[in-house]
User: Which sequence fits this backbone?
């Protein structure tokens, strides 16, 4: 068991720069919440989330907020149950309440990383809903952001992946520590006498993110620029601003170009042709996502766009659950027929980035 938190026995540890930075980040991230709101921290017991939990425990009472914790036991390691209980006890030692441990079953398409991530977020969302939480804090750091950008670049995944992880996601999740380095968060734990858990999966180079963390980023820092982590994080911030601006423009344009029908909707060919490719492609993806709940790849998006830019009488384009065809001056989106075959494309190449 880790030692009891110095915060729990009345001892006030020395305020160091690392501790102050973590607390300031949490304070700024929660400043807009109403008093008595419940804020939960997703606590694995690792250095990042433990530093976040300690900062939340300190700042929440000063902001008039309630603070608790959720620990997700993925069941992927022999000692996962005891690790989860240790993390939960660390949260209680910090004075957090309520503290909940959620055991999940990890299975599904996309490999173990994706399945574990999906199971984790489902458990966090369920706990937040049941406890009436206004926010769930995630312990992603500046280093995590840089890794996400590199992975997005490697996939050629477009603006959304290069934009990395959002500081606020889905109106529930907040990432206060995106501006702080992983080493600073580990130092914050040391400065407060907190003993984090070291996840062996973080050293397993079968995982792409671990290879980026242990090999690729250090190589880039050594041979390219010592500030590469910060530079990648800046790239994410700029790309996110651009993506948000384009998305806002697309929503305005869609109001003029789209016509709803009983079986789907349509877009004006002339209107699509008048817009630059970045907006045209976003319009196509917006319709498919909002009207049919589907995500499509860049290849599929370009096939639909050819109905506008390279029209020579070709037949419909088949998307997941969606049929797209040109009918006169409109591009018509409708539900696919049951017997229509859709080519299998495993991963949309402009999608929301991996959430560690």
Assistant:
């Amino acid at each position: 068991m880790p030692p009891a938190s110095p915060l729990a026995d009345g001892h006030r540890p020395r305020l160091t720069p690392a501790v102050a930075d973590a607390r300031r980040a949490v304070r700024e991230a929660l400043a807009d919440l109403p008093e008595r709101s419940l804020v939960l921290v997703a606590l694995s017991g690792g250095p990042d989330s433990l530093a976040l939990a300690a900062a939340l425990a300190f700042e929440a009472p000063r902001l008039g907020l309630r603070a608790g914790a959720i620990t997700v036991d993925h069941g992927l390691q022999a000692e996962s149950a005891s690790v989860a209980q240790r993390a939960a006890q660390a949260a209680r030692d910090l004075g957090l309440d309520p503290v909940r441990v959620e055991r999940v079953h990890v299975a599904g398409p996309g490999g173990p990383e994706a399945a574990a991530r999906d199971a984790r977020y489902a458990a966090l969302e369920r706990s937040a809903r049941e406890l009436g939480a206004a926010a769930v804090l995630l312990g992603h750091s500046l280093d995590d952001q840089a890794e996400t950008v590199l992975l997005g670049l490697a996939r050629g995944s477009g603006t959304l992946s290069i934009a990395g992880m959002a500081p606020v996601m889905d109106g529930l999740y907040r990432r206060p520590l995106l501006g702080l380095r992983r080493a600073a968060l580990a130092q914050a734990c040391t400065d407060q006498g907190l003993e984090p858990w070291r996840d062996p999966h973080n050293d397993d180079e079968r995982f792409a993110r671990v290879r980026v963390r242990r090999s690729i980023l250090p190589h880039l820092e050594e041979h390219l620029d010592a500030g590469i982590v910060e530079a990648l994080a800046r790239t994410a911030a700029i790309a996110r601003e651009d993506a948000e601006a384009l998305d806002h423009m697309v929503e305005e344009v869609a109001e003029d170009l789209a016509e709803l029908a009983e079986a789907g909707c349509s877009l004006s060919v002339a209107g699509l042709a008048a817009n630059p490719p970045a907006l045209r492609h976003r319009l196509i993806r917006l319709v498919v996502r909002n009207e049919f709940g589907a995500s499509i790849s860049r290849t599929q998006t370009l096939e639909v766009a050819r109905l506008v830019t390279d029209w020579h009488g070709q037949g419909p384009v088949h998307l997941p659950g969606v049929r797209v065809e040109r009918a006169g001056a409109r591009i018509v989106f409708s539900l696919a027929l049951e017997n229509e075959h859709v080519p299998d494309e495993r991963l949309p190449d402009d999608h929301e980035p991996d959430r560690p």
In short: Confidence is low (pLDDT under 50) at residues 1-5, 346-356.
